[in-house]
Amino acid sequence: MSAAVAPWLSILVPVYNVQDYLQECLASVVGQLQQLQQSPNGVAGVEILVLDDCSTDDSRALMDQLAQRWPGRLTLMHHAVNQGLSAARNTMIDAARGEYLWFLDSDDRLQGGAIAALHRIVQANCPDMVVCDFRLWREPMGFKHRLRGEGHRRSFAGPARRLLIDQAAFVTDLCMPGQMHAWSKISRRTLWRDGLRFPAGRYFEDMATVPRLVLRARSLWYEPAPWVDYRQRRGSILSTLDLNKVADLSSALRATRQELDVLPVLAQDARVCTALSHLSARNFIGAIRWLDTQEPGELTDSRALAQRFLQDFLASAPLSPQALVQAYGRKGWWLRRARLQACLRQVDGWN
């Protein structure tokens, strides 16, 4: 690709100890580009940035091999010291030249046709953000997994395949399902202005960043197709929670609330306030439930931690807990209301 011609899309792939998965991930991208360029209406102008964050396995050597196999397709980058997922993504954001950015975790893959479909949407509608669905990828995929709908998970609760410009509505419909992963959101690079980046050194970085990103979007397109296969692996963050991870989850939306407060139109919209408060409540409930799983004496001061999680909730949610409980009741969400009330009572009566 000529250095003078900016790509329309940058696909950003952070790499750390994924030698068993990396080739399949990158092949799912490169294969699509090869097919597109051979078609009569070929799509050019996609760069693939791949950054090794000091892997201790053979991931970096594999990157070099794949770059030789696919000459000119991959732009390889390296960190001198391990800095974590957020820092890897941030380095690639700074280096990316595409009009749109698409994050892809290096153990996941894109489904066939995803890039061509994205290109058609971008060409016809020019949205600030495109949201896609995803598939939970298990090997093997059993009947019970299909029964749970893991073959197609929705990322958005609103209307599909149309350009959405009611910002309050699409912010609400993005937050309510709680699917805050970065890889199902393709965004204009300009939305990352003013230093918006993933929080380095923290867990639940997507939860801390994606809601802020969508607050900046003025238009959105939802494509109800599972473009991403999200691999399920043992040892994930959710399956290995500890105090540091739970604390980061609890406080993840504080910065989103601060950004919302300087956007008066959105900050005064009841739908947006309810949706962001609901997202904050989910984090709060998750933190309190994690406390419940700890053995007596395992934590030095469970009462103080519970109060800390409550303060995070109060600082993150635009609505007060009482107002959110009432909102749940008006919507008929009795189970959600009961869960929140139980956790609030538990904090007040913690022993």
Describe this protein with a few key phrases:
globular, 14 helices, 351 residues
Question: What does the model show?
Answer:
- 46% of the residues lie in helices and 15% in strands.
- The protein is α/β, with parallel strands linked by helices.
- Strands 1, 2, 3, 4, 5, 6, 7, 8 and 9 form a 9-stranded mixed β-sheet that branches.
- Strand 2, helix 2 and strand 3 form a beta-alpha-beta unit.
- Helix 11 (270-293) packs across helix 14 (334-348).
- The radius of gyration is 21 Å and the shape is globular.
- The termini are far apart.
- The model has no long low-confidence stretch (mean pLDDT 93).
Structural class: alpha/beta
Strand runs, count: 9
Oligomer: single chain
Rg (CA only): 21 Å
Using the alpha-carbon principal axes, give the shape: globular
Are there runs of 5+ residues with pLDDT below 50, and where? Answer: none
Task: Report how far the terminal alpha carbons are from each other.
Answer: 63 Å
Strand content: 5-15%
The biggest beta sheet reads:
9 strands, mixed
Contiguous helical run count: 14
Helix content: 40-55%
Order of helices and strands: EHEHEHEEHEHEHEHEHHHHHHH
Output mean pLDDT.
Answer: 93
